[in-house]
Amino acid sequence: MSRLFGSVRARATLAATLVVAVALVAAGTAVLLSLRSNLLGEAGTQAERSARDVATALAVGTRYTELNLDDDERPVQVVDEAGTLVAATEDLRRITGTGVDAVKPQPSAADDDSGSDSDSDSDSDSDDGGTEDDTDASLEAGEIGEPATVGDGTATIDGDTEDYRFVAVPVETRAGDRLTVYAGAPLSAEHGAVNTALTVMLIGFPLLLAVVAWVTWLVTRRALRPVEGIRREMAAITASEDLARRVPVPGTHDEVARLASTTNETLAALESSVERQRRFVADASHELRSPIASLRTQLEVAAAHPELLDLDGAVEDTVRLQRLAADLLLLARLDAGERPADGRVDLAALAREAAEGRAGVRVRDGDAGPVSVAGSRGQLGRVLANLLDNAQRHARSAVEVSVGRDGDVAVVAVADDGEGVPAADRERIFERFVRLDAARSRDDGGAGLGLAIARDVAVRHGGTLTVHDAPAGGALFELRLPGAGA
Hints:
single chain, alpha+beta, Helix Hairpins, Heat Shock Protein 90, 3 domains, 5-stranded mixed β-sheet, 10 helices, 14 strands, 51% helix, rod-shaped
């Protein structure tokens, strides 16, 4: 089970099904509540209409005993001001929800008094002749009040018990009697409609959820099929250690396609890095083998023939080994992401120190004062030393160093009057162990690490190192670093 729900497809299907289920339950609840409210409102309207019909009859002078309540299958009660039931549906056997549980009308003293008073008034009017105003007053209709909803209850009519919505309507007859008419409308239609809708939802919602889950499962599987292809290919690459292989890129132009493209770019960068590392190890081994072999030969000759010991050559080979080891160590630290020291370095003073004691090197720092940058004094000094070594190695007679500012950027330029660097080789010379044909002598040209170290240090300090044509016709190496205040 945990393995099943550990897949993205299973989790996506479950999440989509749950979201749809919550939405369906919310929508179904809203529909049921709205349907029930509408049907209850309609039942209330019907009950009010029935109550008003009876109230109208009472208001125009119809007596309780003359009300026609037998043709109406709806429960009706007429209650006087004292709470006595004076009229009701004939077949009414039981009722709840109106506040009056009586179902058999009781004689009303008010009704008897009203009848005798009416007869006396009629005789008196006949004897006295009456006036037009008195006649109009006796014919004036009663008043019907606003309905007040009582609520829901039950009633048993002719042996059938049902739920009803009851409405009470107050009325005042022409004789001055205050009555209340209770009438009910059956809720069977409301119950039937709500139950039918609920049944449909209980049957339809699970089927709809099953369809949603099935469709989501299929769509997710189709969407994740390229991802599974990428995973299989990556597993194969890991097992075979063949970084030249690439994962398939789907033609959908979506996130999965971009993932595949990014994965291939990562594989290409990893392949390039591994290849550079292999080449670096091979070149380092090759560079170390020559001075070690030369030093060993001299020591073996000295051991057999002390008088033939070339002390100067042994010292020179030892210095070469020391410099090469230092270069390799610095490159290893740079590759490991070593951050430069957080200090403030004056490039003008550093350039003068690097040029001190070098024949044919002239420093021109202008009148701008100190040119400060943030970084490691030792590493930046190594950059200037490497640039000066390279310039002296290729210059005919002179090397010029200039230090200045270009806005917030500190600029150091090292120019020589040599042959210059061909445009096609201006990026290749910054690769490790690369020496151009004119500088392939290991004694004179070095190991080919100086410019690579210089550029790596410049990049680690947030700057750049490029080569251009010098005004004197040679090479111009330009180091640009952010100023200390930038």
